[in-house]
Amino acid sequence: MQQAREAARRSQCLNNLKQQGLAFHNYHGTYKCFPFGWNITGDLNGSGWPFQILSYLEQTALDDKWDSRVPAMDQAAAIGFPAAAATANLEVIKTPIDAFMCPSAAEETIHNYGVPAGSLDTGVPPLDLTWTAARSDYCATSGIRGDFAAVAYASNPATNRSGVLWQTGYGGKSSCPRIANIVDGTSNTFLVGERLGGSNVYKLRKIDATLTAAAGPAQGGAWGDILIGEHWAQGSLYDGSFTGSGGPCIINCSNGRSVGYYSFHPGGANFLMCDGSVRFIPSTIASYTFASLVTLNNGEVIGDY
């Protein structure tokens, strides 16, 4: 019975990613490129990739309520934005969206998030920034770095380690990613991967209270979170712990932002490919193969995994 229930939940998770894939391609059909991973301007206004595809996920009514001129954070009025618009935006990001939540995920829907003063400082006075939002269990595959990259490229060095959905705007690249830029092929390149959302940091199947207190609010674990599009994975150790440089485990050891990918599916996690298809990637995948699926123009030959 448990296996049947998990099979149904996994099927719904696959369907969520397929919906997102269709939304991404409809967006590309309109704008001739995929959305940016995340964007932030000099006055701390910003958003991540989920906002760009809302109207393509049958969320036009919610998209219409969003004022892109105002950041969704509790401190928006203190920075100089209209208080009423900021309050309205905060209500928008509290709205749960089924397409962004895996039914296998054992987490509460609404979480408190934030970043310490100076973390996103782009010219305004440093403030602790906070917001409350509905989680997302899917994040951008921005790139790979740290110890995981060192392991992956130990025998096959690569110059480009970035994925498709990356930052644009302030401090980032200024052009949006196009299918034509994906030299490795859209069927061989990740677009979005499963990473348990919320503000709890897991080590294997348990919440780590210390890591959660230190880094949980900055998880980028909500669909309306600026940092949902920032996930340069460095890996963790196989027990889910990690230092500043990461480790060799990339799937189901830790859900830390810019650490690993994480689902409650046994044996792996689901990933959306750039062609709109969805694949279940086993946690035993070779490091080099996983890295090859993240990057978009290194010319790797993808074998079995």
Automatic annotation (TrEMBL):
Name under which the protein is recorded: DUF1559 domain-containing protein
Pfam family, any one: SBP_bac_10
Domain of life of the native organism: Bacteria
Xref: InterPro entries: DUF1559 (IPR011453), Pre_pil_HX9DG_C (IPR027558)
Organism annotation: Blastopirellula sediminis
Domain DUF1559: 2-286
